[in-house]
Amino acid sequence: LAKTTQPISMDSYEGQEVNITCSHNNIATNDYITWYQQFPSQGPRFIIQGYKTKVTNEVASLFIPADRKSSTLSLPRVSLSDTAVYYCSRGSSYKLIFGSGTRLLVRP
Amino acid sequence: NAGVTQTPKFQVLKTGQSMTLQCAQDMNHNSMYWYRQDPGMGLRLIYYSASEGTTDKGEVPNGYNVSRLNKREFSLRLESAAPSQTSVYFCASSEGGGDPRGGYTFGSGTRLTVV
Predict the structure, then answer these.
(1) Are strands B64-68 and A53-56 parallel, antiparallel or unpaired?
(2) Strands (DSSP E) along B28-83, which ranges?
(3) Which of A34, A93, A99 sits opposite B103 (nearest CB)?
(4) How far apart, in Å, do the first and last CA atoms of chain B sit?
(5) A59, pLDDT greater than 60
(6) φ, ψ (nearest 5 deg) of residue B84
(7) Taking CA atoms, what residue in B is nearest to A1?
(8) HSE (side-chain half, CA atoms, 13 Å) at A53
(9) Chain A contacts of B101, Cβ < 8 Å?
C-alpha cells in the first residue's frame, strides 16, 4: 500500500532554516513529489515540485536522493508567516497521495 | 483572478439529507478533483475528472456522486448524508493529461457537518 509519512509537527524560530522530511518508500517510477502549504481555512497551495536531485525556487528548495524514497523540503530563514501545515504528496497520474501533514510553528 | 471557487463555504446537514457541493474553475484546466480532509489523515481523493465528459473513482468514493457539468464545473453530491461524511471538502484543478507537473490549484474548501 502506497504510503507517504511525514512528522506531525515541528517548531522553529524566525530566521532559522527548516527542513521537513517525507518518506515515500514505494514511490513509483513515474511519480513526482510535490509539496503544498496550507493556512487555516484555506486550501493547500503549491510550493515546489521535483522528480530527483535538487530543485529550488523563490520560496523553497526540494532535495530528493537518488533512490527517491524520501524528500526534504527546505525553507530558508523562516518568518512568522511561514507558520502553516506542509503536505508532501507523490503521484504521476490523477491519484495524488498526500501525507498527513506537518504542522510548522515559527516562534519570534 | 478567482482560480477555483467552491460553494457553499459551510453547511450543516441532518443524517439522510442530500446536498450538492459546487466547484468552478476559471483557468481553463482540463482535470478536476474532489478531496476530503480529516484530522490526521491528510487529503484523500474522492472522485476525479480527467477531462470534460469523464469521471472516475478515487480512494474513498462510497456515498458520493459527481458530475462534470462542463469544462469549468465539477459538482459533488451526497445523496444521503451520514455523520462519517463530516469533513472539509476541497475541489482542485490541474492542466491535466495526468501529469502532476505544476501542481494542483485548490479551492478554499467547504466545511460540512452532518448531525
Answers:
(1) unpaired
(2) 31-38, 42-49, 56-57, 64-68, 74-78
(3) A34
(4) 36
(5) yes
(6) -65, -15
(7) B59
(8) 2
(9) 32, 49
Using the Cβ of A32 and the Cβ atoms of chain B, whether some distance falls under 8 Å is answered with: yes
Q: List residues bridging with B100 in a β-sheet.
A: none
Q: What is the DSSP string of B5-22?
A: EEE-SEEEE-TT--EEEE
Residues of B in contact with A32 (CB under 8 A): 100-101
Mutation site for B-interface testing, chosen from A8, A94, A103 by largest number of B Cβ within 10 Å: A94
| SS3 call for B28 | coil
Residue B1 banded pLDDT, cuts 50, 70, 90? low
Residues 6+ apart with CB under 8 A from A53: A63, A64
Q: What average pLDDT does this structure show over A65-73?
A: 95
The residue ranges of DSSP E strands in A39-83, in sequence order, are 45-50, 53-56, 61-64, 70-75
* pLDDT for B26: 96
